[in-house]
Amino acid sequence: MLEQIKQTAEYLQNRIKGEMPKLGIIMGTGLGTLSDLIEDKQIIPYSEIPNFPVSTVEGHSGNLIVGNLAGKRVIGMQGRFHYYEGYDMKQVTFPVRVMKALGVETLFVSNASGGMNKEFKVGDVMVITDHINFFPENPLRGKNYNELGTRFPAMTEAYSKKLVALADSIASEKGMRLMHGVYIGVTGPTFETPAEYECFRTMGADAVGMSTVPEVIVANHAGMTVFGISVITDLGGKEITEAPSHEEVQKAAVKAQPTVLALVHEMVARL
Ligand code: HPA
What we know:
It is built from six helices and nine strands; from the N terminus they run αββββαββαβαβαβα. The protein is α/β, with parallel strands linked by helices.
């Protein structure tokens, strides 16, 4: 794995023009248009990057985007690798390892999720304050490479409190409705049964989705500062009778996009 990370990082170092970014952004479902705000960009298809898996899901294009966002150098992932697609945890989190090797110190992640918190509405934007790993495995299982991080990393502040506070202050300035919550990561690809949504709510989660947790675990292992945002694209629970669909998730994510883009853009400007 170390050899692969090194090889991929070297390839990108040679290919990326200009200064290496210190900020990485994983642009989740429907939020790929953040890349439109990145200026002077270089688009590097995953298919051209050695050791990179290739994204397969509808609505996710697979490119690394390197450029300037709000005056900062950023490296963005347009499309991510999901566990439900069949990738293993090492593949899902490989790009985060590579970002770290390139010098990325701060990671922004975004996703779409189903809301269980009774105060949530479809289209709400939730800052992730913490997560529950409900995947059947942990991306750090197996041999630990001390060069990458410690054997038993703390997850006490998996999501930076400072960045949550920054998001809050921007939201209040802009009069933006910004929710807080715990994200529970599950494998999918099924959406949850009503009983499962209820179960996750009882466990202390506010939203459920099929990504993010593996990448955030690896980012913490690597000592990165993390900020996460979740768009509530559907609601779940025993009183919710509408069935969620991929199309509906995409539609709701696209609708919430301007809010998320404005927030992320302003946060990056103030980093
Ligand atoms: N469950 C799991 N993943 C999701 C959901 C959901 O309801 N909505 C968007 N991603």
